[in-house]
């Protein structure tokens, strides 16, 4: 097997992913024992993470330059290495392992992949973001039926799936998002209370309507939204930190106020960090559950209305997601860039 394929490589730390990365040619090779050779069809976009690694602002991932990029991809197996028995040529597979995403082909250990029913983008979203939603809400958030759940960035790729999973458990859902279009979208999913932070104060609404009533609050934004969730957590409630989109620099914000211990102790409440990469042992079970819900028509995947194609489209997709304009899951169709 000879020839080359294209991939996005981060070559320098820079203010933006676009400024630090470039498309490069890599040598094609046959899979070694225990490896798969996969032709990528679609890539899922994690623009916040991409921007933070470009700025060297992700403490938990040490980046050695240069590095390939991208986390999520779905494709088909083209060849398997010696000793591989669970995969065969033609299988549709997904990976959520960095850096398997932003490249035409992926050659990696078989343990980096999971089978999906077909090479359709819905299965990429479910195997990556759907699993993350289930892990954040049910594993880390320890959700119980009928609880009150608050979700920030509720119209995003992760948020719109968390909204649906919470509703399936009979929960009262409070969804936070920005703008009328996103608000209408989240309402269409069935959220009971939608807070448009561009038109209302999240702090004021929660204090007036949900004082000490949030059993589970999942925040991926940080800043004042995290503060509002924390202030209104219920007795024995759980505030789940799944990101900090408002802090692309990855530097702790210095806040002068009482320690959160005083807000937690008398309620028996907790703040819990959600890092999906640390929960890989639980992914297969979560994947089976979200796949079954989707197959039964109970969990739908909504994609952002903009279409991004080819490796060149990854840069536009990252910019779009970071801009805060995206709604639903952002993906890139890589098939147009393959030769």
From TrEMBL:
Q: Do you know which InterPro entries this protein is assigned to?
A: ADH-like_C, ADH-like_N, ER, GroES-like_sf, NAD(P)-bd_dom_sf, Zn-ADH-like_protein
The GO terms this record gives for MF are:
oxidoreductase activity
Pinpoint the Enoyl reductase (ER) domain residues.
20-332
Against PANTHER family, the record matches this protein to: PROSTAGLANDIN REDUCTASE 3, SHORT-CHAIN DEHYDROGENASE/REDUCTASE
Supply the name of the protein. Answer: Zinc-binding dehydrogenase
């Amino acid at each position: 097997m000879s020839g080359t394929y294209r991939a996005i490589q981060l070559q320098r730390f820079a203010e933006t992913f676009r400024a630090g990365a470039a498309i490069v040619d890599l040598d094609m090779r046959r899979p070694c024992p225990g490896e798969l050779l996969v032709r990528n069809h679609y890539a899922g976009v994690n623009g916040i993470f991409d921007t933070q690694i470009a700025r060297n602002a992700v403490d938990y991932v040490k980046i050695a330059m240069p590095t390939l990029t991208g986390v999520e991809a779905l494709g088909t197996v083209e060849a398997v290495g010696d000793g591989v028995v669970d995969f065969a040529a033609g299988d549709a597979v997904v990976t959520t392992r960095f850096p398997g995403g932003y490249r035409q082909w992926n050659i990696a250990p078989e343990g980096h992949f999971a089978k999906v029913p077909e090479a359709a983008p819905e299965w990429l979203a479910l195997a990556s973001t759907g699993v993350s939603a289930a892990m954040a809400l049910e594993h880390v958030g320890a959700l119980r039926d009928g609880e009150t759940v608050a979700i920030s960035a509720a119209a995003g790729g992760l948020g719109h799936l968390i909204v649906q999973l919470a509703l399936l458990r009979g929960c009262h859902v409070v969804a936070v998002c920005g703008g009328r279009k996103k608000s209408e979208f989240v309402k269409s999913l069935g959220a009971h209370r939608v807070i448009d932070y561009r038109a209302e104060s999240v702090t004021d609404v929660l204090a007036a309507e949900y004082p000490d009533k949030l059993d589970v609050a999942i925040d991926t934004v940080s800043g004042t939204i995290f503060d509002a969730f924390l202030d209104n957590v219920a007795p024995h409630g759980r505030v789940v930190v799944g990101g900090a989109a408002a802090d692309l620099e990855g530097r702790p914000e210095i806040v002068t106020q009482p320690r959160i211990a005083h807000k937690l102790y008398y309620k028996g409440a907790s703040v819990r960090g959600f890092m999906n990469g640390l929960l890989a042992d639980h992914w297969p079970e979560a994947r089976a559950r979200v796949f079954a819900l989707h197959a039964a028509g109970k969990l739908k995947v909504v994609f952002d209305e903009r279409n991004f194609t080819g490796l060149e489209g990854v840069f536009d997709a990252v910019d779009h997601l970071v801009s805060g304009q995206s709604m639903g899951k952002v993906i890139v169709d890589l098939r147009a860039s393959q030769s």
